[in-house]
Amino acid sequence: MRKYQKWLVMLSDTEDYSGFLDNVSKLADIFLPIQMHVVLTNRKPDLPRQVLKDLPFLRHPELHEQKSQLEVRLKSVLHSDHSYQVSAVEEHSLMQILEYCKQDNTELMILQKASREALPIRAQKLVRKSPCSVLLLESKSLQLNHILAHLDFSNYSDLAIATIKELQEQSPLTNFTVVHTFRDASRYMDKVFERVDEVNELYGKSTLINQRLQANADYDLNDYLVKVGLKSARSEAMAYSTLEKRASDLIRYVNQVSPDLLIVGSKDNEVSSVDLLSSLTEGLMQTKFFPTTLIQKERGENEGLLKTLLKFLS
Asked: The domain spanning residue 282 has which CATH number?
């Protein structure tokens, strides 16, 4: 994660962010970012919209006070060597946050994730549109004893492997697991059959087909790990029946092995060119029981979309 040198850290005045900031400080001490932009999102006051539009300065004292309080808190939790700046924005200022990403050339956005809760809609929008990788960070005390990465042999898997290798050097006692998901024999049910006996044959041999698919997935995963030179990591290939169940099956496995950090790609081999996220990553954000998660994006991902949005709203 040392390649992520420029961070944008999101806070909300509606949540207790003390534990979250402790975890950000812990990560900063390990990975030494050269720049941190801490952004506090502020609730809109319970006033008529027209009043807020005509008199925007009504917010200035409140925003200034909250920003000052946050600066005091950051000074107490961050090491003096860390460089950071603080901004306060409206709660729904999605485009302002994306503008910060563009201005700062942000490489990692860090969002607070409540334990055992699905990601809020606003946070999901940020994950989709973000031009950089996103870390969904819980507030409970962060440990890096066990890290799990999902691999599909795409460019995003290469990003995950690079991160794992770096973490192995940084934390040699950390345990690593990689999991590859593949579709089982149900993939052939989508075929248009001409005769009933063809359908019966497929059902009758589904167990054998699944055994062959499992063996092939195990071989592909081991072959990939050898090629990328990843050592000392537990590996497992896991079948799923439909794309819709892929995320829930992965989460079930995640809850079994209980990693401290999950690494996934924003996209994969199943995604179309127009999608901002894969169905797997979208599915993860909808569930309540996923851990601290690093969603990795390629450099410049969504850059064209971001430029269009900012130009349209300028």
From this structure: 3.40.50.620
